[in-house]
């Protein structure tokens, strides 16, 4: 078995896949694609992922892209420990929680959106950052409301982390990238503390990646 992950230190989607691989205890080689420098558009990477995004998982030569699809693929290929609960209703809830970040919030902050804001609407760096912080905050607020309705015990669906917790943790990691605190979101913060106590989450954090450290941070 060989697993390669094309990712980048700042990629929120790559963070999610790193966590999933670690929870599954699956060793992998990460190949950096600097999405801030536009290397996702290089011909070599375009042959790997025609969407020009990260992450891409290569498993024994088979390519899978989009973080949700990758995590579900891993859960089917390596069923234990489970990322999705056995119960039908809980599986739907886990997917819904993960999708708040994966489908609703994070996509509004990715490089191609930031670039479009600047090129098409003349937004400067401060305006673009304010835009991103707004959508990160909206995602956190949504999670806070959802966790108020169904509190974490200690994770979103019980005693073990699932796809839901990976999604929420990725929203927290995105807040860290934009230097945002979680004071207004105590339930999200409490769940995040449970997640980041685990090496699978802590070691996958953007600020723990070699690419981040090379920037002199």
Automatic annotation (TrEMBL):
Q: Which PANTHER family match?
A: MALEYLACETOACETATE ISOMERASE
NCBIfam families per the UniProt record, alphabetical? maiA (TIGR01262)
Annotated protein name in UniProt: Maleylacetoacetate isomerase
* Assigned protein family: Belongs to the GST superfamily. Zeta family.
By its UniProt entry, which PROSITE patterns does this protein fall under? Answer: GST_CTER, GST_NTER
Q: Which residues form the GST N-terminal domain?
A: 1-82
Q: Taking every annotated instance into account, which residue ranges of this chain make up the domain GST C-terminal?
A: 87-217
